[in-house]
Amino acid sequence: MTREPLTTSKTESSDDQASPTPGSDGLADRATDADTSTTTDSRTILESRNLDVYYGDDQALQDVSVELPEKQVTAVIGPSGCGKSTFLRCINRMNDLVDAANVEGELLFDGKNVYDDDVDPVALRRKIGMVFQQPNPFPKSIRDNVAYGLKVQGIDDNVDERVERALERAALLEEVEDQLDSSGLDLSGGQQQRLCIARAIATDPEVILMDEPASALDPVATSKIEDLIEELATDYTVVIVTHNMQQAARISDKTAVFLTGGELVEFDDTTKIFENPESQRVEDYITGKFG
Ligand SMILES: Nc1ncnc2c1ncn2[C@@H]1O[C@H](COP(=O)(O)OP(=O)(O)OP(=O)(O)O)[C@@H](O)[C@H]1O
Q1: 9 domain residue, yes or no
Q2: What does DSSP say about strands 254-259 and 237-241: parallel, antiparallel, or unpaired?
Q3: Which GO terms describe its biological process (predicted)?
């Protein structure tokens, strides 16, 4: 994958194969020996430092510091209203779209604070894509749905090839290759969600954020999405908010547990969180005593 600056919108069309950009924008190059700070054998790609988020006077996240590993699945779990989505939306600055939201502290992506003044949110969201709870295809063809992400980023070369590659990567191509010009809205819910995943990965991001991506789907479609998420983690870093603890246990490598008040109470290997958490509050939550 390519390193591009976060500080300009993507307008060029053909540099997906370009050389890594040296650190003129203050960003570290990908996977250098120097940046191997880690919580496991994988290097850290995302890090929050003393992150506080307020909506008006109400605090939604409190002093959250955590390092997320590259090319692994991190699940974010916790009771309703504890700040899971808020945390996710900080990572690619979706909270910029909420007038009342105020973010303090740092959110580092490859060592660069995404809240620095010189970071372009559009360039950032090319590298950190997002998939939402409700599949939200546009009332356009399957092809145009996937091509949309490319268009927004100013990528206009090899569009058909990129669309097909993204659909294949999202495990959808086989099911839709004869109907690329049909409406994305005619697909089943699970197919629509995989279409949205294809749209997110068409621009070749490094990180995919998923906010309850399977909660609106039936068990068969959910299972396909879960398989896909595990498969995507070979190439991408995935951060997924889920209410479904079994799902978190099944598909994630790391789990972050937020509890009421927007506090990150524990972050660790998923097996440790589910089998032997450090915190009694986390154990109570996992075992269903509250939440
Ligand atoms: N746009 C907003 N304006 C004001 N308050 C908000 C906004 N979005 C979230 N909040 C508040 O921030 C807190 C955290 O919300 P958030 O949606 O991040 O929690 P969550 O853990 O994802 O919840 P759920 O599991 O119910 O989706 C809640 O008290 C919520 O009411």
Answers
A1: no
A2: unpaired
A3: phosphate ion transmembrane transport
In total, how many domains does the chain have?
1
Please give the pLDDT value at position 155.
86
- Give the range of the structural domain holding residue 155, as residue numbers without chain letter: 36-286
Q: What is the CATH number of the domain that holds 67?
A: 3.40.50.300
The low-confidence residues of the chain, meaning pLDDT below 50, are 1-2, 9-40
Mutate to test the pocket of ligand 1, among 86, 247, 285 (most ligand atoms within 8 A of CB): 86
Query: Cβ neighbours of residue 138 under 8 Å, at least 6 residues apart?
Result: 144, 145, 148, 184
Ligand 1 near 154 CB (within 6 A) = no
Give the per-residue pLDDT at 14. Answer: 32
* Nearest Cα residue to atom 3 of ligand 1: 55
In a domain, 19, yes or no: no
**For the segment 155-171, what is each residue's pLDDT rounded down to a tens digit?**
889 999 999 999 999 99
* pTM, 2 dp: 0.87
**Ligand 1 closest atom vs CA 243:** 25
Q: Is the ipTM of this complex over 0.90?
A: yes
Q: Let me know if residue 13 belongs to a domain.
A: no
Give the gyration radius of the chain's Cα atoms.
19
Q: Is residue 188 part of a domain?
A: yes
> Hey, which of 76, 85, 245 would you mutate to test ligand 1's pocket, going by the most ligand atoms within 8 Å of its Cβ?
85
